[in-house]
Design brief:
With 344 residues, the chain is an alpha/beta fold. It has a domain at 4-188: Alpha-Beta Barrel (TIM Barrel), CATH 3.20.20. Helices cover 37% and strands 12% of the residues. It is built from twelve helices and ten strands. It has helices spanning 29-41, 57-69, 107-121, 140-152, 166-179, 202-209, 239-242, 245-249, 253-268, 273-282, 300-304, 313-322; strands at 4-5, 12-13, 17-19, 46-48, 76-81, 126-132, 156-162, 184-188, 212-215, 289-292. An eight-stranded parallel β-barrel has the order 3-4-5-6-7-8-9-10, surrounded by five helices. It has a two-stranded antiparallel ribbon with strand order 1-2. Strand 7 (156-162), helix 5 (166-179) and strand 8 (184-188) form a beta-alpha-beta unit. Helix 1 (29-41) packs across helix 2, helix 2 (57-69) packs across helix 3 and helix 3 packs parallel to helix 4 (140-152). The longest helix has 16 residues, at 253-268. The chain starts with a strand and ends in a 22-residue tail after the last helix.
Amino acid sequence: MDYRILGRTGIQVAPLALGTDNFMDPTPADESARILEMALDAGINLVDTGDTYANGAGEKIIGETVKKLGKRDQVLIATKVDHGQRRPGFSVDDPDQFGPNDHGHTRLNIIRACENSLKRLQTDYIDLYQIHRPSPTIPWDEQLSALDSLVTQGKVRYIGCSTHPAWAVMDSIMVSELKGYARIVCEQPPYNLLDRRIENELLPMCEKHGVGVITWSPMAMGVLAGRYDDADKLPEDSRAVLRGGFYADRVTRRGIEVGIEFTKIAKNIGLSAAQLAVVWCKDQPGITAPLIGPRTTEQLPEFLEIMNTRLDDETRAACDELVPPGSAVANFHNTADWMKGTIV
């Protein structure tokens, strides 16, 4: 196994990490548990989730499965604290689900969310605890002091962030250095051939300052896996249709055109389009590991086969011709207001 070092921690992670956004939504409990078990058996050792994934049910199934397998010491569990904390018993569709202090990454919300995640995960500690999306009105001093307290208490081993701009990650590093707080060791942005904008600032900054990069959506929500062939007729069981909203906005006409050409490249080198999308991402400069998020047990082996596969220069050049470095033909940062740039 070609393990990689996560940032400057010394922690080794497999070249692919398991994303669990599908756990319990829509993947049922028994199949979610089986996917996790299969991934761990294959050598994947970082499992990523979040406190709002399936309203916490994702964390619960991970906690139950890892405890049942007796593999807690072999698994790096990464979870996130969202910028809004729903109150127990409130529906996700309830407009009154948030109280005046339920928004933002305040010390109150971070510590409360961590305690709840620990219970759902059935563990005494979280290996990587990440700030999920920026809270621009809350200073890093407030966020990092809370995270540092959790590290000091032994409830969190390392801290990170997800979908933050380069300047914000750099800002957090400066505050940590000045105040002696725990330092962010990893950023988790969206990254795929359709949206390469993190190559302009985020990836060079992370490489320079020793920040690991675990990326999400390497297959561009299935667009690069040949899931879509007509922008006017999206598959009824696709995420774009089932979830709509910002998910649907990521499926663009130009992105589908690129996906069709991308599938041809994959066929020429004997890979599926999904495999090519993941391999392309995992070996890009500055990437620690992309997240794979299979919905079924049948989908997982396809990715396990290519953990140590590498692309030749000719194939990478062909991909660059489809979408040049640093550019984008679909907006996978559409839940992050800070990202600017033209989508062509």
